[in-house]
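so my prof wants the structure for this chain in the C-alpha cells format not the other one, which i didnt know existed until like an hour ago. anyway here's the sequence
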Amino acid sequence: GDSGLKLLKTVSSLIGDESIVMTTDSSNGNDQSLTAVEQYFDAWNKRDMKLAVAQFTENCNVRDLQYDDAFSNRDELEKHLLRCKDCLPSSFNFVIDDIAMTKQKAGVLWHVENNGEPLSFTRGCSFYTLDRSGLIQTGFDIPEKAPPKTGYLTTLKSKFEAEPVRLIPLVMWVAYMYILFISDGILPGANALALEQRTWEEVRDLSINFFLVSPLLHLPFSPVVHPMLEGVFNLLLSWAAMFACFLSDERKDKPNLLPFGPMLVGMQFLTSGFLLPYLFTRTPEFESQVYKEDIDGDLQAKVAEWRPLGGFLSTVGTASIAWAFVGRPEFGEFTERYNSFIDLLSIDRVGSSFIVDLAIFAIFQSWFVDDDLQRRGVSDGESMVLRNVAKYVPFFGLAAYITLRPELPSRVSEME
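here's what i got, hopefully its the right format
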C-alpha cells in the first residue's frame, strides 16, 4: 500500500535511480519467473531451507538487527534458518507487501501471518544486493520492534499439541525441581535452598572421589564417604555420561531448543534436572539415514560413535556396584553397611535424590532408542531384541546397545 511506497521512497538513495519495478503481489505460479528474493521468501514459507539458501551466493553476508552478528556465508545462514524453522510454527508465513527491484538491488516490505491472520509486531523491511547472476550477495533485515517475544513458548506449545506424551517429562521435571530444592518433608533432609553445610561438604567429597579414582589410588586428599553412597553416585554419573551415545540427536539440520551437548554436560552436575527438560523440548527425528558428518561438532561426533564407550562406562558402573558392597572394609559386612546406608538416607537429601535419579534414568532411557535406530536406517519392527534390551534393561542394556548397534555411515567412506 501507500505506506510501503513511502518507506521505499525514503530509501531511494540506497536502491538507486535505475528503473524500479513495483509489485504488491508475490504469488506466481511459474517459479522460473520469480527473482531470487521472491524465491527466498517462497522457499522459507515452504520450509525448504536448502532451496532458500540456494538463492544466496557462497560468500553472502546477511545482517538481521535482532542478532548481534551478521551471518557471513551460506553455511552460517543455513544453520540460522534451520534453527528458525524449528522455533517457528509451520502455520507462520512471511507475506510480501511491497517489493522494489533493480537489476542489482531490492527492497522488500513484509509481515508475518499465522494461518492467514496477520500477527502484531511482525512487520519489517529488508534490503538486498544481487550479483550478476541474480543471487543475493548481501541482506539487511529490519524487523519491527516488539514487546518481549514468546517464540519459545509458542514452539513448546506446538510440540505438546503434536506429542502430548511430552507432558510426562515436563510434569516430572517440575515435581523433581520442587521436591529437591524447595520442599520440606517429602524427601529426607533440608532442602537445597537451606544451604546446609553438611550437604555441600558431602557434594564436595563425592566429587573428589569421582569415578572412584582417588580412593582406589589411596590419594592422601581422598575423603572418607560411605561406600554405598559413593557407589550410587558414580553409577549415576556413568549412566548420565552414557547418554553421550545419542549426541547424533543434535545436528545442523535438526537443532533443538536446548542443545544436547551443553545439556549432557549439565547432567554430570544436576542429572535429571537437565535430562527431563531436554526430553520435552527436543526436536522429533525425521531422518531415516544420518551420517557421522551431520553431527554438530567434531568432538561430539567422535564421542557419539565411539563404540568402546559402552564397555568403558559399564565397567565404571560395575566397579561402582562392587565398591558399594565391598569397598572400605571398615564399614563392615553387607548387613551392617546396608543398615548404616539406610540411616544415612533417612537424613540426607542428596543421597535420596540420587535414588530418584536412578529411577528417572531407568524410565526415560528408552525415549532415545527408537529415534537413534531410525537415523541408522533400522525400521520399526527390526532388531527387536537389541531395541528392547536397550529400552528396558537399565544401564547395562544401554551399554550393550552402544556396543552392538549399527554404526552411522560416513560420507567420506562412501565416496571412496
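also thought this was worth mentioning. The longest strand covers residues 92-101.
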